[in-house]
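Page 42, continued from yesterday. The earlier attempt failed because a stray header line got pasted into the input along with the sequence. Redoing it now with the clean sequence only.
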Amino acid sequence: MEASNRNRTLALAAMFQSAVLVKELAWHGRCDLDPLQTLVSSLFAFEAESLEAVYGGVEHLERGLRTLVEQLDAPSGRIDGEISRYLINLVNLERRLMKQPDMTRTLRQGIEVAQSQSEVFGLTHENVMARLGQTYQDSISQLGPRILVQGEQAHLSNQDTAARIRTALLGGIRGAVLWRQAGGSRWRLLLGRNALVQEARGMLEHIVDD
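This time it went through. Structure tokens are written below.
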């Protein structure tokens, strides 16, 4: 994968898309299904030719791109702490996952089962969400420490909502893998944020123009 600023921006946008959907699901029990579907489909894109192809086009990461700009271009006092915390946790979990080849295989196997289910039921069907949610519990949740998701207890304790939250987090882990493969790092995020924001703004302008 090319280590370009464009690819890093797209991968980071996927992580932000994951984070903002987790927050919406946890507090409201629902989210827009289109950006969630994008994250799910990225899990099944094992042999994509490019990072953009993983997500089916830049336009499918619009929610993440907007959140990226809002977070990285905001004054420190206006940054959404929940979203930032989820993003940092995703990066840390991905690093631990890559050191556990057995866990990676477990993750891949669970995703392949969910992919087969999606061909019958559709990407965001409750059966697919349940399988992906269970796959997250069987793999990522075992790495520790777990991501502490804030929200309304009624939504967090709802089985279907919890499965969607874990699925969104799994999509965020996928984005974190791509971020690293594209040359992303903590230092790149800290020192190169202006370039990432500029790239994201350019992508959003093209989405609007189209």
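Notes: The radius of gyration is 16 Å.
Reminder to self: strip header lines before submitting.
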